Queue: 2 jobs
Job 1
Amino acid sequence: MPHRARPRDLAARPRPATPQRPAARAPRPRWLPALAASLLLLLTQPCGAQEIPGLRANLERTVHELAVGIGPRHQDAPQAYSRAAARITALLSRWGVPHETIPVPGARNTPPIIVAHPGGPPAPPANPPAPGAPPVLDMPPPPAPLILGAHYDTVPGAPGAADNASGVAILLETARLLHSPPRVKAWRGLPLPPPPGAVRVAFFPNEEAPNFMTTASGSVAYAALLAATPAPPGRIVAVDTVGLSPRAAETGILAALFGNGVAVGARGPSGPLARDLAAALADRLPVDTVVTDSGGAWIDRSDHTAFTSHGWQGALLTSPGVALAACVHAPCDTPDILDPRIMEKTVLGLVEFAARAPHARAPAPGP
């Protein structure tokens, strides 16, 4: 009889294990992606960059008002020229920044030099001793001022957004922030506002041809006025045509090579000023610094030149490749060739530069 295989005991057959359901994951907090994005943004920001609410919008608005709302501003367009000066003084008055206006002697159809004092005006000069009285020997000399200057005129036919509504807008915001500094972490410990009379923000008329470096020039008139005072020569930075965008083909080859930055130019005796200025800006922007006694004709083509002949240190703050910028002095000098991010970072650097100037480290006067 053939052997029959015994059927396997089905009951003894091991049952497959029941698959375990994976444990339910805790829901990811909705704020986590936003937090990660914020941390990434902070890590990728340049050192020292700070966001000031409304700063970029203010810069764009002022450039648009001057270049589009007013247009060319020069002696042969006296109404527009006067409107530009009135706009500058109106903003300073709105922000409570002390300022004065100084006429340019003998210049026709010319609005005044406008000088803002973000730390307060300088103290009036002391009365000289009466005849026969002993001289006062312990009177400290007046401080050497720092001037941040920009011209607000244009050549005929040019709206002047870059040259030089950009410089005017940058210095208006610099004066505002120096006068009423916001609570920014990077600025804690800085002497803001600066001491009275230590920093002046000047807006000059008649700096374009044919008035440049003539007696009709605002910077020439103001430099001569200061030379007649007992204050020693100080430092001046001319802010002129800042923020040319390398994305615009009209701004020249060098701007595209250097990228979103600025250029600082000075002659040899003003090298310390140029290096201090570049150091304050370098945390935020690429800075091309040129200090030379030969070549570089672009270095002398702005308002600081009138002061260096009186013994001041002077530097030009401008855009890389400005000498090749096709739209400067042309109808295409409109707001669209400017990068407001460059202008915004320039303001922040100038505020820190002014606060860290040598006057800020001087001991406070006694009672």
Job 2
Amino acid sequence: MRSKSLWGSWRKREWRSTGLGLAAATLLAVGASAQVYGDGHDGVLAPTSDITLDTAANGGVFHFTSIQIPAGVTVRLVGPNPAQFLCQGAVNVAGRIDANAPGALWLFSGGQHISNQDAGPGGYRGGGGNESGFGPGGGDWGNGSYPVVMGASGSHATVGSPNNPFLSPAPTYGSHLPFDLQGGSGGGGPGTANANDYGPTGTGGGGAVVILADGPIDVSGSISARGGDQIMGPEYAWISLPAIGGLGSGGAILLRSLQCLRVSGQIDATGGSRYFLGQQPTPSGGAGFVRLDSYTACGAPDVTGAVIRPAPYLAPMPFLTALEPARIGQTYRARCASAPGDVLGFYYSLGTGNLPLPPFGVLELDTSLLLFFGQHTVPTVGHDPLAAIDIPVPAMPGLVGLTFHAQVFNAFGTVTSQARLSNRLDVTIGL
């Protein structure tokens, strides 16, 4: 498509015909549905007892025809790669999907000392003695002065605790949209200046889990990608702690249905906590990301009664957003999440409206001056393909403070059986 400025010279017949074009497109919007996610070569995932899936052999990408995990059954995910489930049909999780880092157990009585630096699938390991945690948000090792030699906890979407006045918090990384396919980072290891008095190593970060389904998704059980915990003997609550590692940060969970998505159970991508047996846990690792996408007339994902930590990013598709604010002299980068292969028309106006267009949703733009900024296609590859809508904003100070409003409509081509209008994006231009 030939690039044009949003503020170019639009003739009256152009914007008038745009309104007619939208109406005509609406009449043509219903198309045949197409298979999008996977080829189904791994068959049905329907375990009757606990199983472990390793992401090492297949790059972490599984192709299922349907997923049915009954109550009382756990699917444990391990391996170096993020776990990606592509599903042609329905997904029903009444049991558990577990992509947590294993964590550590450190008891005073009996001397039971179990360290584990491993991460969840696609996450990063915790640090050993005198070793920082791995990953972009890995915590520093406890290089203070004894007895203050505790390692810092890992960060991800939020900052992990430094745990130590000599250390700085680890940097955050990643994003909800585009969804960053990385797990959590590891906690820093303990300082070992006193080799006889250091405790568990840093724990690993939570894994990354992506479930993309053509059919509906229902989670009444749990999906978790937590950073590794440290379980300490109760004696450590009132005696001096040994030098111990930091906690891993939470991982990343993306669920997308091209139909309806409902969560009434639990989704958890929080960081690791430190437990003294018999007491409440102390959170320490930074939290990760949770994003939930749904499609069709279901609207936003239904999370009634759910327990989701951290708070989820909800995206009813087509979902229109921006990577950063609009500024004069720069390119405004809008992005739209929708079904792979969808062709989106981008419309904008200086005013808002409320025109129901059943079954396509509500047109929330002023139809008296409705402008069109071309067609934009959602890529067909990647775990989170987004239509890129790049709009040059002239370096004109008079535009500062101007607000415009935008929506997309995938009436030009959709791989689902039902075209939809997106949410409205309100944009105010700044310096």
